[in-house]
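Retry 2 of 3 after timeout on previous attempt. Resubmitting structure tokens to design endpoint.
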């Protein structure tokens, strides 16, 4: 019996200063039924505007561009996107993955390799939906798995390759990265406010200057995350 895979349509944006590269990447997108090309940009500055105006799931991004380069664009973003870097040089790979990209491709790109990278983004999108549909998670505690209600989570703190999930009653240490945690919580009312912290916006009591109070905990808010935080909160 044939097993058919269900794909979620992903809106994508191509960002590359070379018109020929944009055309070639666009052809790869056109071959992939579940990718929907929203637009192409010739600069990072142009892409910044396109990301504000459109709902984008996947950015197909060049590194070397005049003015703001691809890595600098990633640093400027306040929202988490799946990003596949497509560049002519391998030397940016370490920096790329430090920025949490989904995959890194070196030109010229074969379709099989392009599809593999986009499938990673597809799996990330599905994981967000599956996690977001549930009101609870199970986390490992010793040899057992403990149920944690997602609304009870106040904030999450990064500890290297681990995160600590804080509820009013307990803290849970899990072997997962902050990037993975942020991705899984993207569809919930959680937001990253600092390199080391994700907060449940429903638990926020007060914001003053660059500090956010969640319960009895004062959490720093990084400048790079503050605008997105203030935009999302219901301010009067």
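Retry 2 succeeded. Sequence:
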């Amino acid at each position: 019996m044939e097993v058919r895979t269900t794909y979620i349509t992903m809106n994508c944006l191509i960002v590359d200063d070379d018109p020929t590269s944009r055309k070639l990447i666009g052809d790869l997108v056109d071959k992939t039924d579940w990718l929907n090309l929203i637009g192409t940009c010739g600069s990072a500055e142009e892409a910044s505007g396109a990301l504000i105006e459109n709902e984008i799931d996947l950015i197909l991004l060049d590194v070397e561009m005049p003015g703001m380069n691809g890595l600098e664009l990633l640093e400027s973003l306040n929202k988490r996107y799946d990003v596949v870097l497509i560049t002519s040089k391998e030397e940016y790979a370490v920096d790329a993955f430090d920025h949490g990209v989904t995959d890194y491709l070196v030109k010229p790109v074969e379709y099989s390799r392009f599809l593999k990278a986009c499938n990673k983004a597809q799996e990330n999108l599905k994981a967000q939906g599956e996690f977001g549909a549930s009101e609870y998670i199970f986390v490992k505690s010793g040899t057992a798995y403990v149920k944690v209600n997602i609304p009870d989570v106040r904030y999450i703190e990064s500890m290297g390759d681990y995160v600590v999930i804080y509820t009013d009653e307990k803290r849970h240490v899990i072997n997962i990265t902050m990037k993975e945690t942020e991705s899984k919580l993207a569809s919930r009312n959680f937001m990253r406010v600092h390199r080391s912290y994700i907060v449940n916006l429903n638990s926020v009591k007060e914001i003053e200057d660059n500090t956010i109070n969640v319960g009895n905990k004062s959490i720093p808010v990084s400048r790079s995350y503050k605008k997105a935080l203030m935009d999302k909160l219901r301010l009067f």
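Attempt log closed. The chain has a mean pLDDT of 86.
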